[in-house]
Write a structure and sequence with these properties.
This protein is α+β, with helices and mostly antiparallel strands and 462 residues long. The chain contains 21 helices and eight strands.
Length: 462
């Protein structure tokens, strides 16, 4: 058997053998329900409805279901739609390091294959197995993100979703050792997305379905590797033609960390605000300050936002914001909205909401700068802080200042977050055609062994 690149070998060995501890599985359960809540909430948005009614999917046949709908389609398209729903509102979990991303994006392939394997291969899985697959996917994507920055090469983080989904999906499909490495190598060889659609002047809704697309492509590679004898041992390191030489410049991909459950154990939840995570603490700070600004918005002279370096580089924007995707990735817009309204939800970024002229007035009064101590706290793996400070100065000389180092949803505030996460889930199933009492019962059940994954899934599909 040919020797594969060390990164591929390491990922393959990990997904084949690692079993998470109970505490990590419990965290994965929280993540599972949080992701389902995000998908349920996305179903209320008109653009999402157009996606789930795509003609080619409506006319396809299959048995694999899609969250919150009565759609039955093939496993690849179900993976795509599940991923789009979970990700659409920018409200699912987040991982911040050299690279950023949302490891729960990988749940799309886990859900699709759970349905597919039972119906087509008579493979029954336990809820604990599903949660362990989630831990594996989180760790692969997140560990690669800790050590590698695709964004500095102009590449989008969904490349890591594709790799993680490919590795874990191959394990779920019970492929052999050689096939799993083949699938991972194919994921690296597959064309990678550019970050173009995340930045001015091309910011658009693709960011809401890009991860679903990446997971769907991973599943396609898995199905191909089932029947094709593929072998690309040096997909990463091959001179001239390999992933590193073609895409990574002077920063070849590496993976030196031990792979365990660090990412799931330290995952960040978006508890209160559907906003890009580097701005979560800025939103919290601005909402706190807003209590002092009733009737005084027109008296604001200056706003200063101190943030981490990625916060400046990714979401600090000047000039016109043309759509929802532009606004929910603009720290100045988010702070302005929160100062004016004292709240933030998915409707805050709509075209109608953006018509408030006070928003651009405040944006023009805002200066966003890097605080180097914040950047250090951000990259320190023992801290994993996402700090922001908002200072508002009034014409009268009054000044209001608020600093938040760790967002609600951070591990350091996990216990504080739990009631809000439950509230988020309960709100997501309001006015939906589901057995809400049964779903809440699953949510509240602490004994993982007592949860039947198929009974649970029957209650999240129509």
């Amino acid at each position: 058997m040919p020797k594969f690149d060390p990164v591929i070998e390491k990922i393959s060995d990990y997904v084949q053998s690692y079993q998470a501890q109970e505490s990590s599985l419990i965290e994965a359960k929280n993540c599972f329900f949080d992701s389902i809540a995000c998908a349920f909430m996305a179903l209320d948005h008109e653009q999402v409805k157009k996606f789930i009614q795509l003609e080619y999917i409506k006319n396809s046949s299959g048995s694999v279901r899609v969250i919150g709908t009565n759609i039955k389609t093939n496993a690849v398209d179900a993976t795509f739609l599940n991923g789009a729903l979970i990700r659409w509102l920018d409200f699912n979990d987040t991982w911040l390091a050299k690279e950023w991303g949302h490891p729960s994006d990988n749940i799309s392939i886990v859900l699709a294959l759970t349905d597919y394997l039972k119906k087509h291969k008579d493979i029954n899985l336990s809820f604990k197995q599903i949660l362990n697959f989630m831990v594996l996917a989180h760790e692969v994507q997140g560990a690669l993100a800790i050590e590698n920055s695709l964004n500095r090469e102009g590449l989008d983080h969904v490349a890591l979703v594709k790799v993680a989904s490919a590795a874990v999906g191959a394990k779920m499909m019970d492929l052999d050792r050689s096939q799993i490495k083949s699938v991972i190598s194919n994921a690296f060889l597959d064309g990678q997305s550019l970050r173009t659609y995340r930045h001015f002047p091309n910011t658009g809704a693709r960011k809401s379905w890009a991860a679903g697309d990446a997971s769907a492509k991973a599943l396609k590679q898995i199905f191909i590797s089932e029947v094709s004898d593929e072998s690309y041992p040096t997909a990463l390191t091959s001179k001239v033609w390999g992933f590193n030489d073609v895409l990574m410049g002077n920063n070849p991909l590496k993976l030196e960390r031990n792979l365990e459950s660090y990412v799931m154990d330290n995952i960040l939840y978006k508890v209160s605000f559907p906003a890009e995570f580097h701005a979560q603490t800025a939103a919290e700070a601005a909402i706190s300050i807003s209590k002092n600004l009733e009737g005084k918005i027109g008296e604001i002279k200056e706003i200063l936002i101190s943030t981490q370096e990625p916060g400046v580089r990714i979401i600090s924007k000047q000039g016109p914001l043309t759509n929802y995707a532009d606004r929910d990735h603009c720290i100045e817009y988010i702070v302005a909205w929160c100062l004016i309204n004292g709240s933030l939800d998915s409707n805050s970024y709509s075209d109608e909401s953006a018509m408030d002229k006070n928003i651009d007035v405040l944006r023009n009064l805002t200066t966003t700068i890097e605080d180097k101590t914040y950047t250090e706290k951000y990259y320190d793996l023992s801290e994993r802080a996402i700090p922001n400070k908002v200072i508002v100065k009034l014409k009268s000389g009054e000044t209001y200042e608020e600093e938040v180092l760790y967002p609600l949803g951070h591990r350091k505030r996990r216990d504080e977050s739990k009631p809000f996460l439950r509230q988020k889930f309960c709100k997501s199933i309001e006015n939906k055609d589901f057995d809400t009492a049964k779903l809440i019962g699953f949510y509240d059940e602490n004994d993982l062994d007592s949860i039947n994954i198929y009974e649970l899934l029957d209650n999240i599909y129509k």
